[in-house]
Amino acid sequence: MESSIESNTKTLSKSQVSNTRLQLEDLVFGSVAGMVGKVVEYPFDTVKVRLQTQSVENPVFKGPMDCLKATMKEEGLKGLFKGMSSPIVGAMLENAILFVGYRQIQRQIREYSPPIQTPTTILDSEGQVPLTLNQLVLAGAIAGSIVSFILTPVELIKCKLQVQHINKTTSFRGPLDLIRHTYRTQGITAFYRGFLPTFIRETGASAFWFGAYEYTCLQLIQHRQKSTDKLVSKNDLTAPELMLGGAMGGIAYNLSFFPIDVIKSRMQIQSSGQFKTFWQITNEIYKGAGIKGFYRGCGMTAAKSAPANAIIFMTYVRTYDSVLGFIIEKKKS
């Protein structure tokens, strides 16, 4: 199976551009895609986090719409974007590292476990044997595990700022104020509270993210191939088709490990004092609300994941193709 991140470029491009340049391009294009996607999804994320972290015994909100209306009434539109500067930076770093890692890990897989070529194998646009879906999923999982080390402190800051209004905790002026306070009162290790669930979520969910995207693109290619004698590749997919692949990846990412995300959010908003562990919070949620307690904010997450991730993948691929096409034309002239 051909990877769209590896092959959604013109055939000549990869042989003409150095690996270092490709890594830099992945960093830039991944950053842009992450920033755009985060702006789209952030209001939904604020509602999700507030639903996830409210008291199990005495919930403040009845559901997503109640939370949305209450936030707009009490805080205005800016309440939905509270604490966004930190996640914007985090999203840029996350997506940049994800795309760079995904591409580089695919290269390592090719080196140490090369895919098998058969007489019927159709080579990808680089003239290489395509990686299998399982290999692409593995590459996504490893890339996600790396990202978790950066994402943990970013999400801790985001979650604390998103809920400080309803929790009546210390009012921070912004991310830098919160960072200074946390470091001064709890030390550097406090920024990695919630690392275990973040690591589990990012490793597993990133495998689903890339896996669902690649699988959807493959199905679209196979569908097109039935109606033409011309060899169809990822280069032939339209923007709406790429967005469909991204949307499916986003839904798979967010819903596959949602209970872990709930636990992570509750771990990260704890105030200074007696901090509860991963298992203590898991037990607390289950005793207070049963299985449904692990799915608070799930509807809002599903609503945000499709458009945000559709934009992320489409932005990444189209930006990549546009710049790479410009480089090729410049080399020809």
UniProtKB/TrEMBL annotation:
<dbReference type="InterPro" id="IPR018108">
    <property type="entry name" value="MCP_transmembrane"/>
</dbReference>
<feature type="repeat" description="Solcar">
    <location>
        <begin position="131"/>
        <end position="219"/>
    </location>
</feature>
<dbReference type="InterPro" id="IPR023395">
    <property type="entry name" value="MCP_dom_sf"/>
</dbReference>
<dbReference type="Pfam" id="PF00153">
    <property type="entry name" value="Mito_carr"/>
</dbReference>
<dbReference type="GO" id="GO:0000064">
    <property type="term" value="F:L-ornithine transmembrane transporter activity"/>
</dbReference>
<keyword id="KW-0496">Mitochondrion</keyword>
<comment type="similarity">
    <text>Belongs to the mitochondrial carrier (TC 2.A.29) family.</text>
</comment>
<dbReference type="InterPro" id="IPR002067">
    <property type="entry name" value="MCP"/>
</dbReference>
<feature type="repeat" description="Solcar">
    <location>
        <begin position="240"/>
        <end position="322"/>
    </location>
</feature>
<dbReference type="GO" id="GO:0031966">
    <property type="term" value="C:mitochondrial membrane"/>
</dbReference>
<keyword id="KW-0813">Transport</keyword>
<dbReference type="InterPro" id="IPR050567">
    <property type="entry name" value="Mitochondrial_Carrier"/>
</dbReference>
<keyword id="KW-0472">Membrane</keyword>
<protein>
    <recommendedName>
        <fullName>Mitochondrial carrier</fullName>
    </recommendedName>
</protein>
<feature type="repeat" description="Solcar">
    <location>
        <begin position="21"/>
        <end position="108"/>
    </location>
</feature>
<keyword id="KW-0812">Transmembrane</keyword>
<keyword id="KW-0677">Repeat</keyword>
<dbReference type="GO" id="GO:1990575">
    <property type="term" value="P:mitochondrial L-ornithine transmembrane transport"/>
</dbReference>
<keyword id="KW-1133">Transmembrane helix</keyword>
